[in-house]
Amino acid sequence: MRSAPSLTLEPGSTRIGPALLLAALLLSLGAIWMSALMVHFQWALSGLVVALGLHRTLKPVPTPSRAVLQSDGVWMLEMAGAGEQVPATLESSTLLAGLISLTWRSERDGRRHTLLLWPDALKPNSTRQLRVWLRSGRAHTQTTTPAPLSPEGIS
């Protein structure tokens, strides 16, 4: 059985995510104000959209600031701000042309941790290694070792 590759992800800051959030907010506001709703409903919906955008911007969801794949297939996630390390298994991944989404499940408390990686968030070499590893099919396989055979089980 082959061991997991040495893979370390250290996502940096990105400009694409906030720019897309701003574009979505502006499009939503434009659609609200071009609709045939009464003006007080337009103001109420606009306030709701702006409040949701501010909430997402000012109180971001805690995401891993560093993720290291260990030889046993378990990831160690270092959470941004807290500095705590959380062991987790990769639950799902999505590869798109300009986006990689990774979802881990914590082995401690079962919580999910999702990381969206835009093209400018990782170094090109790290992005290439991650894409190759995810496409190889070994990313979501269980890395359990088989139980040893007992002498009675051999015939």
Explain the overall architecture.
This protein has about 160 residues and is α+β, with helices and mostly antiparallel strands. It has two domains: about 5-10 and about 60-135; about 15-60. Helix content is about 35%, strand content about 25%. It has three helices and six strands. It has helices spanning about 15-35, 40-60, 125-135, and strands at about 5-10, 65-70, 75-80, 85-95, 100-105, 110-115. The chain has a six-stranded antiparallel beta sheet, with helices on one face. Helix 1 (about 15-35) runs antiparallel to helix 2.
Describe what is shown at a glance:
With 155 residues, the protein is an alpha+beta fold. It contains three helices and six strands, in the order βααβββββα.
Form type: elongated
Number of domains: 2
Residues in helix, %: 25-40%
Strand order of the largest sheet: 1-2-3-4-5-6
Instruction: Please outline the major beta sheet.
Output: 6 strands, antiparallel
Report the span from N to C terminus.
Answer: 25 Å
Based on secondary structure, the structural category is: alpha+beta
Q: Taking all residues together, what is the mean pLDDT?
A: 82
Q: Which stretches are poorly predicted, pLDDT < 50 over at least 5 residues?
A: 142-150
The secondary-structure element order is: EHHEEEEEH
Q: What fraction of residues sit in β-strands?
A: 15-25%
Radius of gyration: 21 Å
Count of separate DSSP helical elements: 3
Instruction: Give the total of beta strands.
Output: 6
